[in-house]
Amino acid sequence: MRSMSTSSLQNSVVKDMALAPDGHLKIDWVESHMPVLNQVRRQFEAEQPFKGLKVTISLHLEAKTAYLAKVVQAGGAEVTITGSNPLSTQDDVCAALVEDGVTVLAKYNPDPVEYKEFLIRALETKPDLIIDDGGDLVTILHAERPDLLETIRGGAEETTTGIIRLKALEKEGLLKLPMVAVNDAYCKYLFDNRYGTGQSVFDAINRTTNLVVAGKTVVVVGYGWCGKGVAMRAKGLGAKVVVTEVDAIRAVEAHMDGFHVMPMVEAAKLGDFFVTVTGNRDVISGDHFDVMKDGAILSNAGHFDIEVNKMDLSERASSIRTVRKNIEEYKMADGRNIYLLAEGRLVNLGAGDGHPAEIMDMTFALQALSLKYVNDHYQTIGKSVLNVPYEIDNQVASYKLESLGIEIDRLSEEQIRYMDSWASHE
C-alpha cells in the first residue's frame, strides 16, 4: 500500500483493491510520458492553487485521467473522481487511485442506476470545482440537484458533446456556473481530436477485430476535427475513405482533402468499416442497415451511444450474439451479419486504452490550468461558457515544444510594433 488515506478508502466504491499494483504500473507508465503535465504538477506543488478546496472529476477513468487527478491533488485539492462512460473505467487504475488518497466512485460496466448514483455521490461531496466530460455532472446539477450548485465556483468541460449541452443551457439563460470549453482550445482540437482520435479509434478497431483495414472502405460519419483524424488514419492504413456530412463547408473540405463525399444512404452500401464522430443521434439508422454489406462493422467515436441506432438494428435482427469481446453480431432476416463494436459506445475507450499518453498530456494540462483559471477568476467571469484563454493554450504548446527540445523564433520589438500599428505598414 502507498499513502492511502482512511477517508479515501472508506468513501470509495471500487471493484477490488487487490488490483492496485497493476493500476500503479499503468499510472507510472503514463506519468513518464506526460512531460507537460509533469511541469504543471511542479507548478501546482509550489503554488498550491487548490489548497483547502474540493474537486470532483468525471472523465474516462483510465491511467492518463488518474494522473490528471494526482496533479490536481498535488495542487492541494481533495479529489473525488468518477467515470464518464461505463465501459472506459479500468478497475485496477481505480484501486491505485484510492491508495494514492483519491476518493473513487467507479467500476467497469456498472448498471445504469449504479453509474448515475456514482455521479450524484461525487457531486454530494460538495465540490468547489468540477471537471466534466460530456456534460453529465452539469446536467445533474441543473436538472436534478440544483441544491448542490451552491458551493461550486465553476469548472471545465472536456468534449464536444458536453459543450453542446453547455451552450444550450447558456442560450436558454439557465447556466448557473462558469465552465471553460477545453475542447475548443487549439491544443485540444488540433492535436487531441485529430491525432488522438484518429490513432486511438484504429488502435481499438484493430485490437478488437484483428482484421485488415487496407483495401477496404471506411465510412467516416462527420468531418469535424475528430472526423478529420479518423479519415487521415484510415487513409494511412490503406483504406478507401468515404465521408458523410450535413455541413456544406466541411463536405467541400473533405472533398478537397481527397475523400469521396456522399449521403449516408449511399455510403451505407459501400462501407466495410463505419466510424461515427458527430455528437448527434441516429446518424446510422434503419434505412442504412437495410442496404449494408454482409460483414459490415459499425463503431462510434462520439461520447454517447446514440449515434448508431441500436433499437433499429435490434428490430431488424433475427438473432444477436457476442462473437468476440466487444463485438456483437446482428444477424439480419436475409442472412447478412452486421457487427457492432463496444455496444456502440466510445470505441477507442470502450474497446481500447484511449488516446496516446503524449496527446492527453497536452489536453490534461489544459484541463488543470483551466481549472486554476476558473478558481482564480470565478467571481468576475460570470456564469457562461468560456474559451480557454490564449495564454494557457500557448503555455501548453510552449511546454510541449520544450519537452521535445524544439526552439522557435521570437518576434523582435520592432516586429511587434509593426504588427500592432495600423500606420506603420510601409
Radius of gyration: 22 Å
Which class of secondary structure composition applies to the elements? alpha/beta
Question: What is the number of helical segments per DSSP (H or I, 4+ residues)?
Answer: 18
| Oligomer state of the chains in this structure | single chain
Strand order of the largest sheet: 9-8-7-10-11-14-13-12
End-to-end span in angstroms? 68 Å
What is the CATH fold-level name of the largest domain?
Rossmann fold
Estimated helix fraction:
40-55%
Low-confidence stretches: none
Mean pLDDT: 96
How many strand segments? 15
Assign the CATH superfamily of the largest domain: Adenosylhomocysteinase-like
| Shape-level CATH architecture of the largest domain | 3-Layer(aba) Sandwich
Shape: globular
Total tally of structural domains = 2
Biggest pleated sheet: 8 strands, mixed
What's the CATH C level of the largest domain?
Alpha Beta
Strand percent estimate: 15-25%
EC number: 3.13.2.1
Cofactor: NAD(+)
Subcellular location: Cytoplasm
Organism: Paenibacillus pini JCM 16418
